[in-house]
Write a structure and sequence with these properties.
This protein is an alpha/beta fold. It has a single domain, classed as Rossmann fold (3-Layer(aba) Sandwich), CATH 3.40.50. The chain has five helices and four strands. The radius of gyration is 14 Å and the shape is globular.
Length: 112
């Protein structure tokens, strides 16, 4: 991954209702409809990773479509892919991932 002017970018992926507000914060927003396939979401993540996006927030339902692609980036330094709740259809995967990351970092799940 190359650095553009020393700055990395942040993206948000998900359904329009869940991610629209992030544009006001200056984040790059990529909307997907609930019926879009796993291949489109995976290609989008790969494209963002190749284009200096260091953090990718993705709604849980969208992440469910691209699980293998997200796992591929878990062992890499960048991008950091963070699951966030959607307005509808949350799976709890984001909270589980947070617990796993904390346990890995400190040796026990201190969030319980």
């Amino acid at each position: 991954m190359s650095e553009t002017n020393g700055l990395y970018k942040t993206a948000v992926i998900g359904d329009a209702a869940s991610v629209a507000g992030f544009a006001a914060l200056g984040l790059s927003v990529f909307t997907i409809s609930p019926n879009e396939g796993a291949e489109r979401v995976s290609k989008l993540i790969n494209r963002l990773a190749a284009n200096d996006f260091a953090v990718i927030y993705i709604t849980e339902p969208a992440a469910a479509l691209a699980g293998d692609t997200i796992k591929k980036y878990r062992s890499k330094r960048l991008p950091s892919i963070v699951l966030i709740p959607a307005i509808e259809g949350n799976t709890g995967d984001g909270m589980r991932a947070l617990h796993e990351a904390v346990e890995k970092a400190v040796g026990s799940d201190i969030l319980n």
